[in-house]
Amino acid sequence: MSGMRVAPTRSQLLRSRDRLARVVRGIDLLTRKRKALAAELFGVAAPAIAARARIAECAASAYPALLAAQAAQGNAELEAMGWPSRRIEVEVAVSETWGVATATVRRLVPARRNLVMRGQHPGWSGPAAGMASAEFERLLELLLDAASTELRLRRLAEALARTSRQVNTLERRVAPVLKSEVQRVRGLLEEREREDHTRLKRLSGHSRQWGSAPALR
Length: 217
Fold this sequence. Notes:
By secondary structure, the chain is mainly α. Helix content is 76%, strand content 7%.
């Protein structure tokens, strides 16, 4: 765009002014969108940090419990206790904020179970296996509950970065080029008007001189 020179006409000046006005409106709209996205992002960041801390705390106790269960029962018995596998059903609802689509994940069934729900005999499973199962079921619930916040945080961060790039492009590249073009065309038109005015004054002066000259006999 910076390498193109438009013709210095009034119609082109009006078109350049109109483009510049649209760019300014776009910058204003994108700036307000960026502020709204930043506010949303900061609002989601605190719950996301808290959820990550709970997940890290739970994982720190779940994996030692698994190692204890492996030591007490052995891998073969633990695999047998985990059969059959089950499905964890969730519901995903899509929402939108400033054109940014995010999803909310909701658990339809609880992840945590007791010995009866697991179908295990207390004497066969042992306390170490029960503790490991309970810890990992709690970890699964925390991960599912944090999925919505993490997804929203990532989508908002991507949208904020994209909007910031758009604002920077319009402010630092497009708008300065259009402003420079408007000033150039306006300057050329004003210079042309001054030249036309000077030429008309000269012609007017010559006309008065010719009109006052004595007639030849």
